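Example for tutorial group B:
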C-alpha cells in the first residue's frame, strides 16, 4: 500500500487503497484521485469522508508525464469530456502554463519547482476543457498530469 502524496501544506492526493497521513495541520484535505472523494480531518489524524467532487466524480483517470520545452509545449490536449485536471511540476525549474494559448515565460499560471501544482474541476469553479500548454527556461522538464473524464 502506498502513502498519500503531499501537494501543498493542506492537500494530499492518493488513491482509496493508499494510507492517509497522520499528524497533519488543520484544515487538511485528502483527495482520492480514483474515487474523487475528499476527506477532512478535525484532529490531524482521523479522516471523515467530506465530499465527492462532481455529481459522480470521474470514472476514467489518465496519467501522463509530458516533457515541457523551452518553447511552448502541449501539456494537455483539449477534451470537452474533462471533469478534472491536475498539473504538477515534477522538475527543478519553474514551469508556466497557459490555458488555450501558447505558453510564454513569466505569464499565465506559474508552477513552482518541485511540486507546484494547478488543479481544475467544476467544484473548484475553474474547469477548463481546452488545450493547456507549458514552457520553462531550460526545457526538458517533466510535468505530471492527471485528467479525469
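The residue assignment follows.
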Amino acid at each position: 500500500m502506498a502513502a498519500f502524496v503531499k501537494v501543498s501544506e493542506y492537500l494530499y492526493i492518493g488513491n482509496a487503497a493508499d494510507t492517509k497521513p497522520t499528524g497533519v495541520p488543520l484544515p487538511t484535505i485528502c483527495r482520492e484521485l480514483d474515487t474523487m472523494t475528499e476527506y477532512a480531518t478535525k484532529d490531524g489524524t482521523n479522516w471523515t469522508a467530506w465530499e465527492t467532487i462532481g455529481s459522480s466524480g470521474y470514472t476514467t483517470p489518465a496519467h501522463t508525464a509530458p516533457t515541457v520545452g523551452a518553447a511552448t509545449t502541449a501539456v494537455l490536449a483539449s477534451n470537452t469530456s474533462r471533469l478534472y485536471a491536475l498539473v504538477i511540476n515534477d522538475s527543478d525549474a519553474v514551469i508556466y502554463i497557459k490555458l488555450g494559448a501558447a505558453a510564454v515565460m513569466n505569464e499565465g499560471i506559474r508552477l513552482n519547482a518541485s511540486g507546484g501544482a494547478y488543479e481544475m474541476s467544476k467544484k473548484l469553479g475553474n474547469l477548463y476543457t481546452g488545450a493547456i500548454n507549458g514552457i520553462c527556461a531550460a526545457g526538458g522538464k517533466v510535468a505530471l498530469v492527471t485528467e479525469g473524464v
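The radius of gyration is 16 Å. Compare this with the pattern of hydrophobic and polar residues in the output above.
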